Amino acid sequence: MKYNKFGDSDIKTSVLGFGAGHIGDERMPDNDVEVLVNQVVDCGINLIDTARGYGVSEDRIGKFLSHRRKDIVICTKIGYGIQGHNDWTYSCIIEGINEALRKMRTDYIDIVLLHSCNIDILRQGEVIRALEDAKNSGKVRVIGYSGENAELDFALNVDSFEVIMCSINFCEQKVIDWALPRAIEKKKGVIAKRPIANYCWKHSSQPHGHYCEEYWKRWQAMSLNNYGYDWNELALRFVTNLSGVSSCIVGTANIEHLKENIRIVEKGFLPDDIFVHIRDKFIENDNNWIGQI
Description:
This protein is an alpha/beta fold. The protein is built from eleven helices and ten strands. The chain has a single domain (3-285), classed as TIM Barrel.
């Protein structure tokens, strides 16, 4: 497993991170979760990405990985859903961090991100100040923002934000031209979500109402060739080609899928001509394709 320096921090993250949304589903048995998350760490993946909104994900990370705390980098996303506190307020942020600490059975969280709050909330500054105070108290190591478009643009200009998370894949390329260069310049870590474009290629016809519908339409418009690669490999290696991306997050409940993804990223960069062709196809067909939250 390759590890990247995470922005200007002293954190190093595996190039492939584990999206812990699946383990938040209570229908997945505890025994299966315990085996899965420990195999994730055994495979060399250290970045575990969760969120307040991912069901019982934080609880299960605490239950099954707290004994391996030094082996993992925990990233969680907050801002809402704390009883007795209005969403997107100073107290909601502080109590959200406190609750995440309790659930994950840890004294600190490596990375805490605001989870896609709108630009008006960001401009008010209250939630930013709460994150700064939490970091200064030692409860958080690195703070930042997860989201897209104007909000992401704003977050890149917040000096205290040391990390951004945004959607990056072969159907979501605009950030490559404007966000990644600025993140590199400002020495911010970058976590790529949706690197496999929500598996849009799994559908033979337009999946109306499905969360991958927008990416499917873009994929069709681009008329992409898979160049003889499996689509999953093409997608993952496209993102790991990108300078400035610290880690890309893939969620799964299947350890064999996870191991296959590890084998893929270990292959390294795509050939330059294929990478450039994918970039060109996006630019040629872009029809006001904004970032997908």
